[in-house]
Amino acid sequence: MSNTTTCTIVLPCYNPPKGWAGNIVQQVSVLSKELQGDIDVVVVNDGSTKNISDEDIRVMTEKIPGFKWVDSDVNKGKGYALRKGIAAADTDIIIYTDIDFPYTTESIKKIYDALTSGSCDLAAGVKDDAYYEKVPAARRYISKALRGLIKMFFSIPFTDTQCGLKGFTKDIKPLFLDTSIDRYLFDLEFIRKVHAKKYRIEQVYVSLKDDIEFRKMNYKVLLPELLNLIGLILRRKK
Hints:
Helix content: 40-55%
Order of helices and strands: EHEHEHEHEHHEHHEH
Strand order of the largest sheet: 3-2-1-4-6-5-7
Structural class: alpha/beta
Largest sheet: 7 strands, mixed
CATH class: Alpha Beta
CATH superfamily: Spore Coat Polysaccharide Biosynthesis Protein SpsA, Chain A
Distance between the termini: 36 Å
């Protein structure tokens, strides 16, 4: 890692909202000032069919010195996309979040500060009560139901495994790359691996931006993810 590069931010991208590339440039500029150093950015196109142009890629390449674009022709899911992006990261600290930067700058800085302090190997964002007031009811119920199942079946330090903001040191990068779930439950799989290897995990309370808009939930993925959850439960003592 260079003396001025603080970390890599990895962003999975599937049919992003309009203006997404300019928003990334703006967010990275703000974060660079907060973290007092350059930030590498890896964007993984997970088989998008709209809202991505050569101009978007050109703008990010021009404005972000440490920018990398990773392409995938077929949509395979967030977990798959993040593995591809994290494989391309080569800094000491790696942070991942969503393409629209839904969490506040302060939240990302808290993740970064937890890692640079040396107090943990994985800094996992967790949602406070204010978060649940902002999300649609269906998402809220599914999230809380999953947390109940995690508490029942898994011996890990906390139940809020699905928050979309996490960071970790390069020491545990191989554990992330060893995950196999392609869609949403890769977070739970990753945290189980980190905990099993006795690496240090710190919970960091994070906040959503006030103006964030949630995408419509794709209910077709619920059954495959339920099967993934059952698979993790069956393997939990192995």
